[in-house]
Design a protein that fits this description.
Elements lengths: L7 E7 L2 E10 L4 H9 L6 E5 L3 E4 L1 H17 L2 E5 L3 H9 L8 E2 L1 H5 L3
Parallel strand pairs: 2-3, 2-4, 3-5, 5-6
Antiparallel strand pairs: 1-2
Length: about 110
């Protein structure tokens, strides 16, 4: 059995957009790291959370996405989420968040801003 890759968060500024890219397993122990990375950013119009590098996400990650959606509404910025792996998608489908969260296609994210 192979060990999972360590959790990491990359942040990219693209004009008025901040792209946050968590990688590895998003769970109770790693959600605080992702939350801190998001909280460290300010002055953006759009926050993108790109789930493509996640291997796993539990209910803690789900709660973080819902909290970021609520925060975006409260603070007046846009939130966009790029869909992840089949396992991550399954969690979103089971919780029906795939119907509620503001998803964008990966090619929309990769287009020049």
């Amino acid at each position: 059995m192979t060990q999972p890759e360590p959790f990491a968060v990359d942040v990219e500024r693209r004009g008025a957009t901040v792209v946050v890219i968590p990688a590895g397993e998003l769970d109770l122990s790693t959600v605080p790291q992702l939350s801190r990375a998001i909280a460290a950013e300010d002055g953006y119009e759009t926050l993108v959370i790109d789930l493509r590098e996640l291997d796993f996400m539990d209910s803690s990650g789900v709660r973080l996405l819902v909290a970021e959606q609520e925060r975006a509404a409260d603070e007046g910025h846009a939130l966009r989420i790029v869909r992840g792996s089949a396992e991550v998608e399954r969690v979103l489908r089971v919780t029906r968040l795939d119907e509620r969260l503001p998803f964008v296609e990966a090619d929309e994210l990769d287009a020049p801003v």
